[in-house]
């Protein structure tokens, strides 16, 4: 059985994970919020900004831990809950707001004529469209719950070890005592 990693190694892993995860959330959510806003989806833009705030919270928690402040671990956990909450609320509101008439009205005339020429009755495929809509947002909610919840648990479970690693960095290192230089005749009894 492999022994658990040393506190310093756990600290390095947490710092690496928080840096990658925090910046990934920022890099994905900020452009998404901007595009949503430009397209007139202000609720999507608002959710994107909340998710970006979660990413910023994780990056700032990372920086706090990197500077030696173990309280940054709580910020890393909080960041996961911010992202998780925003995405879950968004997915649930989208699922609850499905409207078949809106879906039909969003079809372009070209797509509508393509479907008609292919013999597809638009009204007949609406149950499949609804199912796909629910499935897409349901999967997004589920994956976010698993990933962000897992990251929150990851950070929470490593907090004591990270605190130990940061405390160990503050302790002065005492050099080992030099071997005594005794004469060979002193060793004879």
What's the quick description here?
By secondary structure, this protein is mainly α.
Oligomer: single chain
Percentage of residues assigned to helices: over 70%
Indicate the proportion of strand residues.
under 5%
Rg from Cα: 27 Å
Average of per-residue pLDDT values: 89
What is the number of helical segments per DSSP (H or I, 4+ residues)?
A: 6
How many strand elements? 0
Report the span from N to C terminus: 46 Å
Q: Would you identify the regions where 5 or more consecutive residues have pLDDT less than 50?
A: none
Largest sheet composition: none
Order of helices and strands: HHHHHH
Total separate domains: 1
Structural class computed from helices and strand pairing: mainly alpha
User: Per the principal axes of the C-alpha atoms, what is the gross shape?
Assistant: elongated
Task: Give keywords.
189 residues, mainly alpha, 6 helices, 0% strand
Descriptive overview:
- The protein has 189 residues and is mainly alpha-helical.
- The chain has one domain (10-168).
- The protein contains 6 helices and no strands.
- The longest helix is centred in the C-terminal third of the chain and has 45 residues, at 126-170.
């Amino acid at each position: 059985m492999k022994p658990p990693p040393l506190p310093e190694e756990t600290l390095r892993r947490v710092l690496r994970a928080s840096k990658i995860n925090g910046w990934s959330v920022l890099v994905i959510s900020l452009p998404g919020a901007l595009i949503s806003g430009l397209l007139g989806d202000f609720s999507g833009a608002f959710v994107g900004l909340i998710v970006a705030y979660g990413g910023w919270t994780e990056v700032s928690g990372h920086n706090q831990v990197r500077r030696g402040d173990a309280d940054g671990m709580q910020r890393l956990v909080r960041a996961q809950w911010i992202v998780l909450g925003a995405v879950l609320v968004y997915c649930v509101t989208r699922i609850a707001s499905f409207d078949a008439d809106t879906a039909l009205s969003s079809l372009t005339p070209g797509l509508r004529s393509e479907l008609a020429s292919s013999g597809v009755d638009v009204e007949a495929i609406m149950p499949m469209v609804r199912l796909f809509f629910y499935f897409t947002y349901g999967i997004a909610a589920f994956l976010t719950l698993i990933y962000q919840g897992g990251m929150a648990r990851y950070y929470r479970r490593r907090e004591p070890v990270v605190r130990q690693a940061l405390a160990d960095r503050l302790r002065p290192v005492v050099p080992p005592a030099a071997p005594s230089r005794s004469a060979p005749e002193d060793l004879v009894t």
